[in-house]
Amino acid sequence: MSKILVLDDNEAILDAIHFILSRRKIEVVTITDPALLMPSLQMHKPDLLLMDISMGCYDGRELCYQLKSSPSEKHLPIVLFSAKSYTPASITACKADAFIEKPFHIQKLYTVLEQLLPQEA
Q: Which BP terms from GO are recorded (predicted)?
């Protein structure tokens, strides 16, 4: 079973994503505080990180860049999502594996995740 860590400062969005992904038999861990990202990654060892870009004083693109620059986390697939518009260049610059605009269609989310999650044997 794949495990996804979801970071968003909006609990209603986390609840919705948790419900959507759990239907696909994906283990979902949610956090609302970006300051807990590193400890959560170390504790849960997810197969993928799904993260909002705009979280108060935190920018998910910067967090993504830091993770992708870290030897221990650089191979972790990271999918960013946001209701705001961002240039493709800013998504590429932070080394995100994918970007999804909110509100997103459930099938679009499933498709992106299926492309990035390890295939079960």
A: phosphorelay signal transduction system
Token representation of residue 91: 């998504």
Q: Pairing relation of β-strands 54-55 and 98-101?
A: unpaired
Dist CA 83 CA 71 (whole Å):
30
The CATH number for 8's domain is 3.40.50.2300
Tell me which residue has tokens 């909110």.
102
Query: Does a structural domain hold residue 121?
Result: no
Domain range for 37: 3-116
Each residue of 39-97: pLDDT tens digit? 999 999 999 999 999 998 999 999 999 999 999 999 999 999 998 888 889 999 999 99
Which amino acid appears at position 16 of this protein?
A
